Amino acid sequence: RIHNALEDLKGSIRVFCRIRPINKREKDLQDVDVTEIVDSMTVNTQKPSAGTIANEPEQFNFDAVFKPGTQAEVFDTCKDLVQSALDGYNVAMFAYGQTGAGKTFTMYGGAGDNAGTAPLTISELYRLIKQDEDRVQFTIMASMMELYRNELVDLLVPKSGGASPKRKSQNPGSAALEQKLNVRVDKSGAVQIEHLREEECKTAEALSDLLERGNQMRTVCATKMNSESSRSHLILIIRVVGVNKQTEQKLSGKILLCDLAGSERLKKSDVSGDAQKEAIEINKSLTALGDVMESLVKGAAHVPYKNHKLTQVMSDALGGTSKTLMFVNCSPASSNYEETVMTLKFATRAK
Ligand code: ADP
Ligand code: MG
């Protein structure tokens, strides 16, 4: 029995590796591709060598490897998770990797055929709801926030001026808009984020619009704080409640989508206060996430969710009965070799 439980758990955590194409700037800089696909689950990386003696390649295994794969191809391997949320499961899909490796492309993407996981999840969600509308009454609620330097920021609440969204407003009417978002975990393990705005989205268009607003707000916040938006974790939570019209049986699930902050190590030149504080906090949060994933895969009795706000927020969508998909985004370029290997090694902790 224990064996079966572990088997189930393993099946509920998937790790996909995705390698973006080499770009023009890299080609111009004489970068070469240091990654090689061995098969649909295996990738090799080879340390660039200056001399004639080639370095031994290092091999990494995943549940799937895409190089680079189309958005549709990638989504095909994870869209069953949308049905799982309608069936009452909690689902997390998130992207890990250095800045420029393709996290945002994978999670959000661009127009048309470039639409990524979030917009494709939205289409699939409302398609499935429509398909079942005679039988089940579904309600979709969504919220969007970012986690920047250990502070959660609501991306659906307008910020009332000032240099920082944390600054107390002069206007008493808007003070309520800037409540601190504390994370609470109830006895059943469900995560509640106090004061986080949640909006009902009756249509796919309404939810897409919410995403658009959240992304715009994120850019505004990053500019105000003189930072890059890639230095914060972007979290979208879609809650799904279905009530069976005949039996009145109720099922609640959720989909948590996260575009994580860049995993790259601090550059030696970036020793100034703010960049350093950002980097230290990002490192802490990603280490906490790696520790949680590793404990889950090992079936450890204690999962260290409490080590960071990031893992607290994600806790009811990681482990337990939930289903998790981690995208590991890598650059193929020789100039990124060190970071790529760090990224692949991080990911193998979750295997
Ligand atoms: P990150 O969010 O990890 O910083 P981005 O998603 O912004 O990285 O990707 C960096 C650049 O590479 C973008 O211009 C993006 O369009 C491109 N890119 C990333 N992944 C792919 C891919 N799979 N196919 C084509 N272009 C990609
Ligand atoms: Mg990005």
Small-molecule binders here are:
adenosine-5'-diphosphate, magnesium ion
The CATH class:
Alpha Beta
Q: How do the SSEs run, as a string of H and E?
A: HEHEEEEHHEHHEEHEEEHEEHHEH
Rg computed from alpha carbons, rounded to a whole number of angstroms: 21 Å
Description:
This protein is an alpha/beta fold and 351 residues long. It has a single domain, classed as Kinesin motor domain (Kinesin). It contains 11 helices and 14 strands. The strands form 3 sheets. Strands 1, 5, 6, 7, 8, 11, 12, 13 and 14 form a 9-stranded mixed β-sheet that branches. The protein has a 3-stranded antiparallel β-sheet with strand order 2-3-4, covered by helices on one side. A hairpin with a 2-residue loop joins β2 and β3. The chain is globular, with a radius of gyration of 21 Å. The N terminus is likely disordered. Magnesium ion binds next to α5.
What secondary-structure arrangement, pairings included, does this model have?
Layout: H1 2-12, E1 13-19, H2 24-28, E2 35-39, E3 42-45, E4 58-61, E5 64-66, H3 71-76, H4 80-86, E6 90-96, H5 103-107, H6 117-131, E7 136-148, E8 151-154, H7 172-175, E9 183-185, E10 191-193, E11 199-200, H8 204-224, E12 233-244, E13 250-259, H9 273-298, H10 309-314, E14 323-330, H11 337-348
Summarize the structure.
The protein is an alpha/beta fold. The protein has helices at 2-12, 24-28, 71-76, 80-86, 103-107, 117-131, 172-175, 204-224, 273-298, 309-314, 337-348, and strands at 13-19, 35-39, 42-45, 58-61, 64-66, 90-96, 136-148, 151-154, 183-185, 191-193, 199-200, 233-244, 250-259, 323-330. It binds adenosine-5'-diphosphate and magnesium ion.
